[in-house]
Design a protein that fits this description.
There is one protein chain. The chain is α+β, with helices and mostly antiparallel strands and about 90 residues long. The chain has a domain of about 55 residues. The chain has a two-stranded antiparallel ribbon. A hairpin with a 2-residue loop joins strand 1 and strand 2.
Length: about 90
Amino acid sequence: MSREKTALENKLIENGHEMQVRVYYEDTDFSGVVYHSNYLKYMERSRTEWLRHLEVFHTDLAQDDSAFAIHRMTLKFGPPALIYSESLKI
């Protein structure tokens, strides 16, 4: 069986950044639903890619002794991401 190879999209949009995430089996529970804590990993990856689009690199931040510290998060979950869904936009 042949499957298409797909490149994941990663782009700036009008009010922020959009990134597709490849969901792996290990990210899900037994029914193929993404485990809720994995959304935090996806958001961190997206934040890194957003900074790269802005040409802000972690190595430059480290040289400048700069850092980001998250001190609070509030999450509101929508429909669950599934391992078999077409895409997950973060």
